[in-house]
Write a structure and sequence with these properties.
heterodimer, A: mainly beta, six-stranded mixed beta sheet, B: 114 residues, 11 strands, 0% helix, 50% strand, globular
Chain lengths: 117, 114
């Protein structure tokens, strides 16, 4: 069964500092991986996705993530945090081999990012 | 940009009442989903729907829940007799061949059972 572990339920950084949100996955097959962001009282917005092409994936708002098969990781980074990055971030995995078509997403518990001046 | 729309954005209902949450998936998408997020917890898969039938459902999706695509555009989630523990944000999502494996989510319907 697939699963996602996000280390750190809360991460706090200073404005301008590096953002690193950790995600490790468990999957019996090479998975598809996603990062979604949820701003307060809003829905889930896709930041970026890995679907077996380039291992370094660039997303919106300056975020990027690197798929490392040897470490079963897909950590999210941003070189310089902005106040507007404060939100909840969810890592998710899906099984591309699912015979039924487009498989469901399995989400991690989420990491709340706080950015302080 | 096309988006998934959900109504209502917020509903308060009494325990034991039936609730219907509505969703309009992105046009041309063929795969539909409902997820829920209890306050402070992770987003959980409830059900997926394709070709007018459920393709997969989770343990959460018991006999109290049902889904329907009544008219080719709407996708609904019905909770027959709500319980306090059904209070959550419910997200509708959709995807299709042209979406490149991306599942698009709506803004959510916040259900409060009192």
């Amino acid at each position: 069964a697939q699963s996602v572990t996000q280390l750190g339920s809360h991460v706090s950084v200073s404005e301008g500092a590096l953002v690193l949100l950790r995600c490790n996955y468990s999957s019996s097959v090479p998975p598809y991986l996603f990062w979604y962001v949820q701003y307060p009282n809003q829905g889930l917005q896709l930041l970026l996705k890995y679907t077996s092409a380039a291992t370094l994936v660039k997303g919106i708002n300056g975020f990027e993530a690197e798929f490392k098969k040897s470490e079963t990781s897909f950590h999210l980074t941003k070189p310089s945090a902005h106040m507007s990055d404060a939100a909840e971030y969810f890592c998710a995995v899906s099984d591309p081999m699912f015979s039924g078509g487009y498989n469901k997403l399995i989400f991690g518990a989420g990491t709340r990012l706080a950015v302080h001046p | 940009e096309p988006e998934v729309t959900q109504t209502p954005s917020h509903q308060v209902t009494q325990m034991g009442q039936e609730v219907i949450l509505r969703c309009v998936p992105i046009s041309n998408h063929l795969y539909f989903y409902w997820y829920r997020q209890i306050l402070g917890q992770k987003v959980e898969f409830l059900v997926s729907f394709y070709n007018n039938e459920i393709s997969e459902k989770s343990e959460i999706f018991d006999d109290q829940f049902s889904v329907e695509r009544p008219d080719g555009s709407n996708f609904t989630l019905k909770i027959r007799s709500t319980k306090l523990e059904d209070s959550a944000m419910y997200f509708c999502a959709s995807t299709g061949q042209l979406s490149g494996n991306t599942i698009y989510f709506g803004e959510g319907s916040w259900l409060t059972v009192v």
